[in-house]
Amino acid sequence: MGSIRRWFSTLLVLVGFWWLFTTWPVLAQQRPVPQLLSRRASAVVVDGRPLFDVRDSGTLTGVERADTVNRVLVQEIEQRGLNRNRVSAVTIVEDVTSGQLTLRLNDQHLLTITSADLGAERSPQVQAEVWKRYIDTALIQAQQERTPGYRSQALLFTAITLGLAVVGHLGLGWLRRWFVRYLTRTVHATAPHLEGTLRLISQMAFIGVQSGLWLAVFIYTTDLFPLSRSGRYYLFRSLIVGLTTSIITLGERGYSVLDLLVLLTLFVLLWIFSGTVAGVLKSRVLQMAGADQRVRELVAVFTRYVLVLLGSIILLQIWGLDVSSLTLLASVLGVGIGFGLQNTANNFVSGLIITLERPIQVGDFINVGDLQGTVERIGTRTTEIRTLDRVSIIVPNSRFVDNQVINWSLGNPVSRLHIPVGVAYGSPVETVRTALLEAARRHPDVLANPAPQVWLVNFGDSAIMFDLLVWICEPREQYRIKSDLYYRVVESLAKHDIAIPFPQRDVHISGLEQMMHHWAPKANEPVPNGQKELNNLA
Q1: 456/460 Cα distance (integer angstroms)
Q2: Count of CB atoms within 10 A of residue 42's CB?
């Protein structure tokens, strides 16, 4: 319901917008082309409809000639808007002095037909008649489009078009969601490495279709009204001028915003293509060849970067850009990496070192600093570690190169656990040793070879300290195994009547016996009657 209300509100706003700009006839009259845009155009335009182009002639440029015609046509449209019974037409007059044909409107000069204006195999008379017909038709159409009946009909068509566009947009959205789900189910079973890429491409395709739908609606609806058509024409002209005007110059060629956008799009497609090739190589070719996972990761990373590097050079050469002209840019980029991107570059180089030397691999159980967990992913800049608490932590690659790393899974995963145990003084040490070994041997995760050992390591303040040493082959389970062993140690010691002491302290007060001898005689002396009564009262 919320989505329907939003679409309905949007529809009302659009209808109100078009009503606002089409019910004011005076606003719908064409204005002269802004000077900024007219310098870049030479078209005769009526209500946003280009009729024909005029070129430079003599001392006048094509833009100046087009401005003159457009100004006279705007005045004529305004006069017809004020007087709907006004009748006027373009006439062809031959200039007496030069003999050239001119177009006039109500005794106002429009333009002179010159040799530069003549089309292929056209005489001045034919060219003048063609342009006269274009202008007359455009003026009649402009007058009709300013009548109340036409505006009402155009508003109706606009509302119907917007309604159909909303339905089409919602239908395309539902079709996109269904197709993505179907594609995910199909590709996940056959080519999971392409799942993300195909999903992205399909979503972008549907979004492009939806955008094209609304662009077509915009073009159609704006073409119904003079003011909106004129605004669209000058908007597109300004966009074209802004996108195609050169903003930077490299070498001998200038590049516009459009050139840069196309080049950026090609680079994005190159990145996607290189990732797809590297993924297929890793998950298909190398896997079928029986290559190790570490080798597959290494080959995939290098393949992707080599493809990106070579593709970038080829694109720049095809684009007409001399790669040698980027030497200064590369130098500046190198300085930026050395200062502003120092940490990023350090992590990137560290990622390459990890990939080459392979001190850690995906699936290894490691300790780095105060972090302990399993390596889930090794990227070019960071590594993902999943802790025993099932929390994913992103660690910069430089920590694995600069700091000490404990890799429990590297080589032989068998490792030894230390279980410190303290027993009370006076306990038979051989019985303690037997009890601890019994507790260790009963645990299923404790290896029989190497065999568990018990070492007497220290005489503490309150206990005799032993160290139970056991070997395990699952470092990830060391904390659970320790907990299980402590439970079994307590049970085994209780079975053999061996006490686990708590801290004890003996306090000795020097001179206490002398004080007792000093106060003992006084305690045996007789007490006076009065004092005894006071003591009793107290």
Answers
A1: 11
A2: 18
Dump the DSSP string for 50-99. EEEE---BTTB-HHHHHHHHHHHHHHHHHHHHH-TT----EEEEE-TTT-
What residue type is 157 in one-letter code? F
Alpha helix positions (H), 247-406 = 257-280, 286-288, 293-318, 327-339, 342-357, 398-402
Tokens (6 digits) for 141 = 């159409």
Count CA atoms within 13 Å of residue 460 on its CB side.
19
Burial (Cβ within 10 Å: 0-12, 13-18, ≥19) of residue 500: middle
Over the stretch 60-95, which tens digit does the pLDDT of each residue have?
Answer: 888 888 888 888 888 888 888 777 777 778 888 887
Q: Are strands 108-112 and 49-53 parallel, antiparallel or unpaired?
A: unpaired
Taking the C-alpha atoms of residue 324 and residue 313, their distance in angstroms, rounded to an integer, is: 11
For the chain, the residue count is 538
pTM: 0.47
The residues that bridge with 104 in the sheet, in sequence order, are 91, 109
457-502 confidence digits (pLDDT tens):
989 888 999 999 999 888 888 889 999 999 999 999 999 989 888 7
Sheet containing 365-368: give its strands across. 392-396, 382-387, 371-378, 365-368, 405-407
Calpha distance 37→239 (Å, rounded): 10
Give Cα separations from 38 to 126, 157, 241 (angstroms).
27, 32, 11
Residue 338 one-letter amino acid: G
Q: Which amino acid is at 428?
A: P
> DSSP of 163-214, one letter per residue?
HHHHHHHHHHHHHHHHHHHHHHHHHHHH-GGGHHHHHHHHHHHHHHHHHHHH
DSSP 412: -
In single-letter form, the type of residue at position 321 comes to L
Cβ–Cβ < 8 Å for 405, 359:
yes
Q: Which residue has the higher pLDDT, 17 or 193?
A: 193
CA-CA-CA-CA dihedral for 45, 47, 49, 51, to nearest 10: -40
Helix (H) or strand (E) holding 28: none
Q: Percentage of the chain with pLDDT > 90?
A: 14
Q: How many CB atoms lie within 10 A of CB 475?
A: 20
**What stretches of 392-478 adopt beta strand conformation (E)?**
392-396, 405-407, 415-423, 453-459, 464-472
